Each structure stands twice: as structure tokens, then as C-alpha cells.
């Protein structure tokens, strides 16, 4: 069986039916799978999805404190900028373009560590990276861990139901997982440890990293603005942690054909370029599916790409040694040829360019 067909933990309802068609589970089936996989009493190998949602639950407490005790015009503004722009852009910089696609390289591990911890720690790298490789291999096909055609809940709860790595990988396949994760700096379990915990990352290391990151950022925010600022920004991180789980459902047009001529050039899947995710996080998703290994996905002049600006700045500072930029290839292969294709002006029945 090909590696990417086997690397993710198969849900109880499966990826496809006997005819090879996408399985669209009921909401009841999705929730049953979700709570089963969060049950650490059932199996300690469920620890990573449980840990991921434990962070969300903790951040929700900060969000409640923010709403009840610290709501003001300046905390709302700070929360908006942090939750919508900073958290989103960092997710694109770190999880998406570096950890998954290796679109750029750091000069040394110091700058990698700084970039990894630029924001509040929320998403485990392992859950994001491996499943995202599968997503690009099977985009909008059966086996895509967040296939929008299977519905909102299928995507929203995918980090638990579809994205964790399989618990029964051979040693050879587990070594391939290690190769996909090695550059991230996340220390790998040995194969024996993987068999015990069912994960690439060791729970003790993950928990320690989480505690240190949160202590640092709460302390930094407290020094800048006391509990009002700290609670507001941690609450904003929680809001982002929930909202980001909706992205691929929207980024793939809710499973429908919504691509627009002259805007969405990749027609191999249902991905679309959206203005809001593009501006606040550099997620020009259709462009990204054209050139997934590009450190820039905002190719057109209006396509603001804050993640790219950070990468380029780090390159100027010497922190990023190399990067890939496919803007030139995009213009040569897609944008310019599209502009030159003759089309019919329905008003004058004449050919125009």
C-alpha cells in the first residue's frame, strides 16, 4: 500500500466505499469517532488529539475572562489583531510553508526556534504536517483528511478524526514519518516509544514545551498590559484555534465548484483564493495549490502576503538562508497566457484580448 494511503489513522467509517467513492459519514458517526478518539482512558495512544483540544479548552477560559472582565475598545482591537492577523500569519509561516512544504530554510536552529515560538503554542506540528502532505496528494479525493465535500463537521473535527498518524505503522513507514518531520526540530519518539504512545512526538516533551511557551507569553503580555492584555490575547488565540478548523472547508469552496476565471488558476481541485484569509494570513489557497513549495503565494499586486513579508525580512536579516519564490513562474505559465487568450465580447460579437 502506498505510504500516503496508509500513514493516517483510518476512521471507523473509512475513507471510501466499495465503489471507491467518498464516504460521507453522518454527524452522529463523526461525533462518535471524535469522542472515541479523545478518550485517553480507552487508549493512551489518544493522548495527542486530547492534548490538542485540552489547549483549546484552556484558551476558552481566557476568552470567557476577556468577555466578562476585560472587554474594552483597546482590548478588542488587540485581540482582533492578534487572533486574526498574528496567529493566522504565524500558522502560514511556520506550520504551512516551513514545517509542511519546506518552502524556505533557516540559517540555524536558533532562528527556527524563534519562529516556532513567535506566538502562543496551539497546534501540534505532527497533526498538521503529515496530514497536510496527504491533503495535497489527495486533494478533494477520498482519503483527503479534510475533504470539504463530506461536510463542515468532517473538516472541523478532522484534527481528531482524520489527521493523527496511524498507530500500527511499520518501522519503515515510521522512519518515513520521521523524515517528513525532521527539519521541524520536533524531537522524534523512537519506534518503541511510538508503539507505546502512537505518536511522533513524546508527550512529556510536548507538555513541557507547551508550559514554557505559555508561561513566557503570558508573562510578556502581562508586563506590557497586565491581565487585561494577557487574557485578551490568550482568548484571541483560542478564538483562532477554533476558527482555523473551518478554513479548509471554506478554502475548498464548501465542496462546491466556485472557482472564478482569472482568479483561481489551479483547476485540479476545488481550492479558491479568498480575500480575507489572503490579506490576514497570506492564505491565497488556490495559488498555494498551484505552487505548494513557494514561500510566497500572494502573486498578484493586490494579494497581500504577510507571511511572505516575514520570510523575506528574515532573509534580509540573514536568519533565512534560502527560499523558493514561484511568482515569476505563475506569471509566465498562468497569468500572462490567460490575459492573451482571445475571448468573445457578447455586446459587440468581436474578439478581444
From TrEMBL:
Q: Where in the cell is it found?
A: Membrane
> According to its UniProt record, where is this protein mainly located?
membrane
Q: Where is the Fatty acid desaturase domain?
A: 72-298
- Keyword set includes Iron: yes
Name the source's superkingdom.
Answer: Bacteria
Q: What InterPro entries does the annotation carry?
A: Acyl-CoA_DS, FA_desaturase_dom
Chain ranges passing through the membrane: 47-68, 74-94
Give the EC number. Answer: 1.14.19.-
UniProt topology in membrane = Multi-pass membrane protein
Which GO molecular function terms does the record list?
oxidoreductase activity
Q: Which UniProt keywords apply?
A: Fatty acid biosynthesis, Fatty acid metabolism, Iron, Lipid biosynthesis, Lipid metabolism, Membrane, Oxidoreductase, Transmembrane, Transmembrane helix
The family classification in the record reads: Belongs to the fatty acid desaturase type 2 family.
Xref: PANTHER family:
ACYL-COA DESATURASE (PTHR11351), DESATURASE 1, ISOFORM A-RELATED (PTHR11351:SF31)
Per its record, how is this protein called by name?
Answer: Fatty acid desaturase
Instruction: List the source organism.
Output: Mucilaginibacter jinjuensis
